[in-house]
Specification:
The chain has 214 residues and is of the alpha+beta class. The protein has helices at residues 28-35, 53-68, 115-131, 145-153; strands at residues 13-14, 18-22, 72-78, 84-94, 99-106, 135-141, 157-168, 171-181, 200-201. It is globular.
Length: 214
């Protein structure tokens, strides 16, 4: 008799300026906006979306991820006005290796305010406390210096370069691999670091192949 697949309920987290919560069907339009923008996704690992159905499949995949117990992807609302400004995620959770991967994507109107750092810090704290992680990995396009700064603020160390690992619409790019080990994790109870100017990190498995968004 096979054991049932464990679920991983998506948490709701609160920071000084943000609420991180599970996605709902009502988020489809707000989610489609940044993911259909060539400017927002200029360093992403796939072309911009061209149909709203992609947002609906993305949200369904978030639920499936929770049901499969492989991670959590959270919508990001700004507390001051309730606006959806993006999302962050902890995916590919491996309880045997005690590892997972961090990712985030914010609408360009929300850049420059430190939201990515604030959201990722809260998600990492939840993950280290709840999932007993030892390692978190993140990857970003080598041209995306702003995203690299976000990861460095969180304590990630740049560990290497994946050469020409991404081809989108014929454009080849490299990626930096960042890693955060549990013993290096330092939650920041005080004031958040200065704001970043861009917010987008790729998510890929350890093999270096991309996991396509739904």
């Amino acid at each position: 008799m096979s054991l049932p697949t464990p679920t991983l309920p998506t948490p709701t987290l609160h920071t000084a300026r943000l609420r991180l919560r599970p996605f709902t069907d009502a988020d489809a339009d707000a989610l489609f906006a940044p993911h259909s923008s060539a400017y927002v996704l200029r360093y992403w690992d796939a072309p911009p979306w061209t149909e709203r159905a992609r947002a609906e499949r993305f949200i369904a995949a978030c639920r499936q991820m929770a049901n499969d117990g492989t991670g959590a992807r959270l919508a990001m609302d700004r507390v001051s006005d309730g606006a959806f400004i993006g999302w962050c995620s902890l995916t590919r959770w491996n309880p045997d290796y005690r590892s997972a991967s961090l990712g985030y994507c914010l609408d360009d109107a929300a850049w420059g305010h430190g939201y990515a750092t604030e959201a990722a810090r809260a998600l990492l704290q939840w993950a280290f406390d709840t999932l007993d992680l030892n390692r978190v990995q993140a990857e970003t396009d080598t041209r995306n210096a702003a995203s690299a700064r976000v990861l460095e603020k969180l304590g990630f160390l740049r560990e290497g370069t994946l050469r020409e690992d991404c081809v989108v619409n014929g454009e080849v790019s490299d990626s930096w691999v960042f890693g955060l080990i549990r013993r290096d994790w330092r939650p920041s109870p005080g004031r958040l670091p200065p704001a970043e100017s861009s917010s987008l990190a790729r998510q890929r498995p350890a093999s270096g192949g991309f996991i396509p968004l739904p």
